[in-house]
Design goal:
Blueprint: H1 7-10, E1 14-18, H2 22-25, H3 27-38, E2 42-46, E3 59-61, H4 68-81, H5 87-93, E4 94-95, H6 97-104, H7 109-116, H8 120-132, E5 136-140, H9 142-145, H10 150-163, E6 174-176, H11 183-188, E7 195-196, E8 200-201, H12 205-215, H13 227-235, E9 241-245, H14 249-252, H15 256-265, E10 268-273, E11 285-288, E12 297-300, E13 305-309, H16 321-331, H17 341-350, H18 360-363, E14 368-369, E15 393-394, E16 413-418, H19 432-437, E17 442-445, H20 447-453, E18 460-464, E19 469-476, E20 484-488, E21 516-522
Parallel strand pairs: 1-2, 1-5, 2-3, 4-15, 5-6, 9-10, 10-11, 16-20, 17-19
Antiparallel strand pairs: 7-8, 12-13, 13-14, 16-21, 17-20, 18-19, 18-21
């Protein structure tokens, strides 16, 4: 996030939510959004499904799934046509504006309305409101990134923010909310195939030499494999072994049957886990993992805030996860000897300018937001004050990219997936308390479709895609559009990701979880008895 969470309630005059269901996927932030709306901040919700925050919104743009770029281009078209762009910000702080202007010229309100399903009058109202509000924040999550054009979706959001000067000030900004706890921290530490800690490129000779000198080894200049590429390589016999820590790709990754087949082809699989997950069942060796409550260290949240985490109990396995990793590294020939996680942090920070001023002594007194470059630096609440990291902000125009798979005669329904408040990823099979709150998958279907198929809430159906099939109960509701069904992916008894498409964003390797084609088959009466 470019701006801190507390600005939602303290600064923002407008919240623009696109592709995010904050009250269920980020409930703390979702509650702050409710507070902001109730103190008078305007709210725009853009989502194909009627999420809870629609009740707080001034405008609900119920777009057709996979049409975010046309919507954003259409808003920018109106803003430019009506002279509402921030001309000073564009002139002083951006480049490539003429290319953006040329692209969005084609996205007239009438054309965008046809593509997205959003009424023309709503496009005008929202464009004018966002452009003329002094302090407006945009929030997005997986509803934007889990498309084959996810990167272009994000760039289009940045285009809109730069066009209107909603960056580099309190109460403004582009705010992606991370999908899981410490995803931000994992990426910051270099848990990506193309960067070292602090997003320092592995392809940069100077940076690579710095890490080679610190670690005393030669490092590859090649970018590594993304997760989907790892499974493809396992299918091809190029990746022969995997070590999976705290992930359950059999349940959570797209086209899960493809993942299962890849794991079966591995020569050796190590899984370090708290539970015998669906993925752990494929393991040759299972190592015991320590939970968050058993570990010292740091978490970095979605607003770049590094926070000290202290163990509540001693690790049940006898050691923390970092100690297990160090022991394995030592045994394969690279000695790792640390006495405490603070030593690991200090080593990382010494090589990472954006976090050089953060250490455990400072974190004992309170959290810090990076960039924090020196020991007396206070941290950075919001980014891009005065100038962008690259100098001038680059407009990157994009045209509409249709989803990889759309409904047809054989598979007439569009399936979209997401999270529900009661569950969180793979916790479902392991918590009886959580299971009592939401004990089975309930695929949402519109009343018109339910009537045509002869379905009622609670009835079991078979849902089939080109990749797999699952059995699920249905919930008849107007929260979804006709022709669309919506499912979570939390229940191992209904592994929704056996259905989802493995079409990927070419830049990030993120799967297109939000759009795939399925059909619904009614089960015999005996199955619903």
């Amino acid at each position: 996030m470019t701006n801190p969470i507390n600005e939602i309630t303290e600064e923002a005059e407008l919240l623009f939510l696109i592709g995010t269901n904050a009250t269920e996927a980020h409930p703390v932030i979702g509650y702050k959004m409710r507070q902001a709306a109730r103190r008078g901040a305007k709210m725009i919700v853009c989502d194909p499904r009627r999420i809870d925050l629609v009740d707080e919104a001034d405008y609900w743009l119920q777009i057709k799934p996979g049409t975010d770029i046309p919507l954003l281009n259409g808003l920018m078209h109106i803003i430019i046509k009506e002279g509402l762009e921030d001309k000073e910000f564009i002139a002083e702080r951006t480049e490539n504006y003429e290319a953006l202007k040329e692209t969005v010229e084609r996205y007239t309100p009438e054309y965008v309305s046809e593509l997205t399903g959003v009424p023309v009058e709503d496009l005008y109202a929202v464009a004018r409101l966002y452009a003329t509000t002094d302090k407006a924040m945009i929030f997005y999550t997986l509803g934007i990134t889990e498309h084959i054009c996810g990167t272009r979706n994000v760039m289009s959001i940045a285009n809109l923010a730069m066009l209107t000067g909603h960056l580099g000030r309190p109460g403004t900004g582009v705010c992606p909310m991370r999908g899981q706890n410490n995803v931000q921290g994992a990426c910051d530490m270099g848990a990506l195939p193309n960067v070292y800690p602090g997003y320092q490129a592995v392809t940069n000779d100077e940076i690579r030499e710095k890490f080679e000198k610190a670690w005393g080894v030669s490092l590859s200049p090649k970018v590594g494999l993304k997760i989907p590429e790892m499974f493809d390589a396992a299918h091809e016999g190029k990746v022969k072994a995997m070590y999976i820590l705290g992930e359950n790709p059999v349940l959570t990754d797209p086209n899960a049957n493809h993942v299962r087949a890849a794991l079966e082809k591995l020569e050796f699989l190590v899984v370090q886990e708290l539970f015998l997950t669906e993925t752990a069942e494929y393991a040759d060796v299972i190592l015991p993992a320590a939970s968050f409550a058993e570990c010292d260290g740091t978490f970095t949240n979605t607003e770049r805030r590094v926070q000290r985490v202290r163990k509540a109990i001693e690790p049940i396995p006898g050691q923390a996860n970092w100690q297990t990793i160090c022991q394995m590294a030592t045994r394969v020939g690279f000695p790792m000897h640390y006495e405490h996680p603070s030593e690991i942090w200090d080593e990382m920070a010494s090589l990472t300018p954006s976090m050089a001023g953060i250490n455990y002594n400072r974190l004992e007194k309170g959290s810090l937001q990076w960039p924090c470059t020196t020991d007396d630096h206070p941290g950075t609440p919001y980014l891009h004050k005065g100038k962008f990291t690259r100098g001038l902000g680059l407009f990157q125009p994009a045209d509409h990219v249709p989803p990889a798979e759309m409904p047809d005669r054989e598979y007439p329904f569009l399936l979209s997936t997401g999270r529900i408040l009661y569950h969180y990823n793979v916790t479902t099979p392991y918590s009886s308390g959580i299971a009592e709150l939401w004990d089975k998958e309930m695929a949402e279907i519109h009343p018109e479709d339910a009537e045509r198929l002869g379905l009622e809430t609670g009835q079991q159906v078979k849902i089939v895609s080109r990749r797999g099939e699952v059995i699920s109960a249905v919930k008849v509701t107007e929260r979804v559009q006709p022709g669309m069904i919506w499912m979570s992916f939390h229940h191992s008894a209904t592994p929704t990701n056996a259905l989802t498409s493995d079409a990927l964003d070419p830049t990030t390797g993120t799967g297109e979880y939000k759009v795939c084609a399925v059909r619904i088959e009614k089960l015999p009466e005996a199955a619903n008895a």
